[in-house]
Amino acid sequence: MGSLESSGAEVVTVDVHATKNLINSGHKYLDVRTVEEYKKGHVGADKILNIPYMFNTPEGRVKNPQFLSEVSSVCNKEDQLIVGCQSGVRSLSAAADLLSAGFKHVSNMGGGYLAWVENGFLVQKPHTEL
User: Fold this and answer.
1) Is the pLDDT of residue 3 over 60?
2) Where in the numbering of this chain does the Rhodanese domain appear (predicted)?
3) CA-wise closest residue to 19 among 96, 70, 94, 85
4) Which of 4, 11, 90, 105 is the S-S candidate for 80 at Cβ 3.0 to 4.6 Å?
5) Are 54 and 2 in contact (CB under 8 A)?
């Protein structure tokens, strides 16, 4: 088990059903996908933030060097956060970084946005002009 003071805090992964309940009970949802991905559609939640964990560049994806400071500017370390991405890979790394930085209540949404959509949960998509 190990002590709670261990620096390698284990990331807790919750499925989309648990995530939906946590969002409904007031947790903030932190979408760490790119702005482009986010704009195509995202989890339907009142308290949602989009802070990319990685950026797409001509050389491939690179980590956002401002990620932790951007999250810290809009969240405090006691906030209850659920981190999600497209499939659950980036969010796992992002959640681990947040825990290492001292955030206390961080969970990872397993399966990401794709699993959310597969389950038919509420999504918000851009309104297109007809």
Assistant:
1) no
2) 23-125
3) 85
4) 105
5) no
pLDDT digits (tens, 9 = 90+) for 46-95: 999 999 999 999 999 999 999 999 999 999 999 999 999 999 999 999 99
- The full set of domain ranges for the chain reads 12-120
Rg from Cα positions in the chain: 15
**DSSP, residue by residue, 23-74:** HHTT-EEEE-S-HHHHHH-EE--SSEEE--SEEEETTEEEE-TTHHHHHHHH
**Annotated catalytic, 85?**
yes
Q: The tokens 């497209």 sit on which residue? A: 86
- Mean pLDDT score of the chain: 92
What length does the chain have? 130
- Whole-number Å distance between alpha carbons of 110 and 127: 27
**Residue 128: band (very low, low, confident or very high) from pLDDT cuts 50, 70, 90:** low
